[in-house]
Amino acid sequence: MVSSRKTMIPKKFVLMVSLATAFLFGAYVVWITFVNPRQTPVADESVTAEQNIPSPIANPTIFTASINKDGIPEKIGALALTNSVLGKAALLEFEMLHGKGFELVGGFRADYETDKSNATLWVGQAQNETAANQMTKTMAEKIGAGSKMFTDLAKLSIADRLLYTVKGQGQQHFFYSTNDKIVWLAIDPALAPDALHSLWGAVK
């Protein structure tokens, strides 16, 4: 009888331990599932978006300028169109500024103003894209070789487009070619970013 009692006690003990273990495990599952669920890691989308922010010129933060019936932007940034010159008169001004040798077939000059500042936009149309690229390069070379009107020539590559900038007559000047057009903007440096943004897709 003594040996029989010794063998029965361990079996009951094992059964009790098993039941207790099962109960505790079940309680733990309920706790982590419903009471205190683990957070699923989420990618920091704000950081990803910040790292992928493109050039503000290639993808402007303001709307592209609308153009009037003559193909002239009605507003560039905060500046509104106040006057424009078309055809031969505009081409003559372009020639006076940059010398002869630019065979343009069309273009315009547009004046813009705010309460405190003003800007001027010249757009010349060349015979084709190759000619526009060459004329823009020639202008940069002439200025770089020495100019009484313009100084501090620099160039930037933005969204696969080469843009030149110079200083002159109290303004910052920007010029570049796009398709068969040559674009020249004279403006207050503080207003230049928004103006260039609106021009970037308006003059094609």
Describe the structure using short key phrases.
single chain, 204 residues, alpha+beta, Protein Transport Mog1p, Chain A, 2 domains, 8-stranded antiparallel beta sheet, globular, disordered N terminus
Return Rg in Å.
36 Å
At CATH level 3, the topology of the largest domain is: Protein Transport Mog1p, Chain A
* Unreliable segments of 5+ consecutive residues: 1-8, 27-56
Question: Beta-strand percentage?
Answer: 25-35%
Oligomerization category of the chains in this entry: single chain
Order of neighbouring strands in the sheet with most strands? 1-2-3-4-8-7-6-5
Q: Ends: how far apart? A: 106 Å
Number of helices: 5
Note the main sheet: 8 strands, antiparallel
Structural class based on helices, strands and sheet pairing: alpha+beta
Q: What is the β-strand count? A: 8
Q: What is the N-to-C order of secondary-structure elements (H for helix, E for strand)?
A: HHEEHEEHEEEEH
Just give the CATH class of the largest domain.
Alpha Beta
How many structural domains can be distinguished in the coordinates? 2
The best one-word shape is globular
CATH superfamily of the largest domain: TM1622-like
Named CATH architecture of the largest domain: 3-Layer(aba) Sandwich
Average residue-wise pLDDT: 76
Helicity level? 25-40%
